[in-house]
Amino acid sequence: MSPDRRLFLGTAAAGAVATLLPGCGSRGSEPQMPVSYELGHPLPWVNWAGNQYCFPKQRLAPASEAEVVDALRQAAGRVRAVGTGHSFTALVPTDDTLIATDLLSGLVGHDATRLQAELWAGTRLNDVGPLLAGIGQALPIMPDVDHFALGGAIATSVHGTSARFGSLSSHIVGLTLATPSGELVECSATQQPAVFNAARVSVGSLGVITRVRLQNEQPFQLTEVNRVERTEDVLADLEQRFARHRHFEFLPLPNSDLSATVATDLAKPQDKNLGQDDPQALNQLRQVFDAVSWMPGAALVYDRVLKIAMGDAASSVRTGPSYQVFPHERGIRFREMEYTVPAAAGPACVREILRTLRERQIPVCFPLEYRRVDADDIWLSMFEGRPGATISVHQFGDLDHRPYFAAIEPIFWKYEGRPHWGKLHTLDAKRLAALYPKHWKDFQEVRQHLDPQGKMLNPHLRTIFGA
Fold first, then answer.
1. Helical ranges in 41-135 per DSSP H
2. At what angle do helices 298-310 and 281-292 cross, to 10 degrees?
3. Distance CA 273, CA 228 (A)
4. Of 455, 446, 465, 381, the residue nearest 193 (C-alpha)
5. Per residue in 61-96, is it b (16+ CB within 10 Å) or e — as a string?
6. Diameter of the chain by CA atoms?
7. What is the tens place of the pLDDT at every residue in 19-70?
8. N or C: more exposed end of the chain, with fewer CB within 10 A?
9. Per-residue confidence (pLDDT) for residue 66, from 0 to 100
10. Structural domains for the chain
11. How many alpha carbons lie under 13 Å from residue 265 in its C-beta half-sphere?
């Protein structure tokens, strides 16, 4: 967004703020730190979003596989592993033993001929790119947030966007798992294949992944082009855009007819950076929405203001090494729900969500996010057996997300949506099993074999697995 447009949006917000009534930006009572520390008691662990916490009696940070094995053998009660704590669901909380993977970081080894690399599972994605570049390799695809730990990213089927590429888990060719009993299991498609098919997406229920072997590509450059367009124009041309671009996504603006689009392709020699990301753009949207929310027909006023300010916005361009172009800065705390629906059902699903927001006058301005991911054969992957359209809804971290998410979640169910394992949803084992008819039982058998005592199961995992 240009300085003139930022000034316009800021002026629009200031002009109505004197009569501001509750809207998208009315501050909730939920603090960013949901619990307080009491002297003499265990320190609380809190996730990035500030909506999950626990008071573990024991915190461990093993620096080797031997220490991971020893920790699992000796731990009493429930054990959970944690990377960066970016999951919105209660995957991590335990009041017994919490194992941090921070010290299991870096490159273990690589195969230059096969373009494969083995990394410690605690390695952050923002470190993976430079590490692989140093050995002449690159991840084929990355998510747009690169703060995750590698082990946590594959445990929850983290993904980017492309009709041609699967999730990050689909690029794993081997891994090493420390089981709850303290054994090390190496697995791949040919070695312990059942464990491999379960462990590539397991929400940490099988033990602690220590090492991951990735199938990579040679380093490559990308160019990303950002535009503001009419949502219906994008939807009318959606399949062609996914076919035309190596990566494509769009972000519909609730209560508006506009969307931001992001098209990313292999860079050309003449490509140059043009413009820049505006880290305040989301706050500007919020200010404008708040400023007009008191007016009759507020959504129409909001949409009109955005069209004046952004409707003819020129493209902005980013170009450079793939691992620098894939991620985007996410400096604003939020809560998120994401479901994956069959790719063919994606346009109808997102249209119904946008229509519901307007018809029910739900006061939200945080953009949605629409992406595509190719099918895979991983037992509990959201993309198992079918290509998917992933649709995310977000709410600011200082607002109560529950009424909004409760209004939208049934729409995902209508379109046979599978929830993202690391993002908020309300499904239990019975309903989840129906979404994974082919391999739900297979996964449960592997899990029960590796962890017969349920050592890795906190209350949330017991709910989603019916254990």
1. 65-74, 125-133
2. 140
3. 17
4. 446
5. ebeebebbbebbeebeebbbbbbbbbbbbbbbbbeb
6. 66
7. 333 455 545 545 556 788 788 888 899 999 999 999 999 999 999 999 999 9
8. C
9. 97
10. 45-100 (no CATH), 107-218 (3.30.465.10), 221-419 (3.40.462.10)
11. 11
Count of alpha carbons within 13 angstroms of residue 354, beta-carbon side: 23
This prediction has a pTM of 0.93
Contact 176, 184 (CB under 8 A): yes
Contact 255, 365 (CB under 8 A): yes
Give the integer Cα–Cα distance in Å for 422 and 91: 7
Two structure tokens written together for 170: 């689909």
| CA pair distance 130, 290, nearest whole angstrom | 41
pLDDT tens, 183-224?
A: 999 999 999 999 999 999 999 999 999 999 999 999 999 999
How far, in Å, are 9, 224, 267, 325 from residue 274 at the CA level? Answer: 22, 10, 14, 13
- Helix, strand, coil shares of the chain as percentages rounded to 5? 30, 25, 45
Q: Which of 22-26, 273-277, 340-344 ranks highest by mean pLDDT? A: 340-344
Nearby residues of 462 by Cβ (< 8 Å), 6 or more positions away: 454
- Mark residue 157 as left, alpha or beta (left: phi above 0; alpha: psi -120 to 50; beta: remaining): left
Q: Look at the alpha carbons of 369, 374, 378, 383 in this order and tell me if their dihedral is positive or negative.
A: positive
What distance in Å separates the CA atoms of residue 309 and residue 318, rounded to the nearest whole number? 22
Cβ atoms 407, 384 nearer than 8 A: no
